[in-house]
Every structure is written in C-alpha cells, then in structure tokens.
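User: Show me a protein chain along with its predicted structure.
Assistant: Here is one chain, sequence first, then structure tokens.
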Amino acid sequence: MSCRPVTIPESAVKVLRSHLENIEDGPGLIFTTSTGRPNSPGNLLRHFKAVIEKTGLPEIRFHDLRHTHATLLLVAGVHPKVVQERLGHSQISLSLDTYSHVIPSMQTEAADQFEAILS
C-alpha cells in the first residue's frame, strides 16, 4: 500500500467537510468507530457488506470499487496516465492490461474517430 494525493470531486469534499463539522474533538481521524477509535479493516468490510445488502445491490468485494473506478474513468475518456496515477500503478501497462479489456467500445470509438479524421 502506498500513500499519495488523489483529487476528489467537489461534492465529496463538501460531504467530508460537513462530516468533519459534526465530529467532536478526537484523534483527528475522519472515519472512526462510535467511540472515536480508528476503524479496523474488519469493521469497514462488515459495514460495507451491510450497506450492499440493505440497498439490494449484488454482492461485491470492497476491492471491486477500485476496479469500477478505473473502468468508469477509462470509459469516460480519462487519459490512461491519469488512471495509472490514481491507482498508484508503477507502470501504465499494468493499468491498461488490467482495465482496458473491459471496454470493447473503445475499439469502435477509435475506428469512428479515425473515419472522422479521414472524412
């Protein structure tokens, strides 16, 4: 695991700021247990699974959120280098090999764009 800055949407910043305003003085953590202690990975996963079950969504692994994030960014046309940096991959080939295969529409889009260039 590595530490790196990742830009988040302004909507997420607003939610986090609102959450911080409601936190009493504590150890300076954003997400804690009800007693203000750091969350354990087991607690996080238990709460995540409970939310998934409550919403009626199909069961997914927590790590699947990372895969979905990368895939949606690539589908939206975000440059693969940016996706690589957000994921913390040391090589862009790892990002592309892992995630771009789930986007077959990229080949069609490339063909359409090439046709437009030639027209």
